Amino acid sequence: AAGELVLKLEMEGERVEDMLEFWNRAPCPSRPLPIQRQQPPTDTCLLVVDVQPEYWSACKEVRAEFPKFPANLAKTVAACRKSRNAVVWIRADYSTSSSPWLPRFAELNADKRTQVPFDKDSAQWEDFARPRPGELIVPKPSWGVKDTALLDWLKLRDFKKILVCGLITSVCVQQTAFSCFEAGFNVVVVENACADRGRARHDAALLLYSGYMYNVEECDNLHEDDNDDYDDDDRALEGEPTVLTANNYNVV
Hints:
With 252 residues, the chain is of the alpha/beta class. It contains eight helices and seven strands. It has helices at 2-11, 16-25, 60-65, 69-82, 102-108, 150-156, 169-182, 199-209, and strands at 44-49, 86-92, 136-140, 161-167, 186-195, 215-217, 242-243.
């Protein structure tokens, strides 16, 4: 209800901040939490794409040629958290009911798993890549993020620079980078925190589009702030990650 109220007010041109203040102060026992926009401390956001068992632990052709991927991915995430950059976890959510491209893809790729539905309660994560409490999870029904609320969320919070890493370089990493580029963001692909079904495919994708629609960087060269409050132990954190949807992107 809160997200729907904010969206309705914005469409009608009302002063959302004034209405949010009124909503938060008004007594309402059935409303457990106030509406608030969590403005990020920096203008940089890291998107971690499809780092999940289907494309890493269960995909030996990716693991074979990218043995350093887990360490590089973990280093990328840690650097962004330490610098107080937002970290968003994008997950495949592929099913015939929500992904119209899936039947044709299955015909062309009989050797690949096609149905990859997402369920927050049963979703599995890699040990080196897990969302923290307070970070966002974005299920996507296609290779890019146009069909999600992510681009609206990024724009609403005035992000300027988008770092992209994950799996698979030539497919979902590339399509996610393209979606963000097309939306007007400054996109940087963290090259050695990505992996593909073979080094040749990975290198070819970056050769085609590096310097054309995004820049390429390595994880060791990412800026890392001196943050004395940073703690890499997730056990000290309370709560759980939030799944971003069209109904809540205004208020998370």
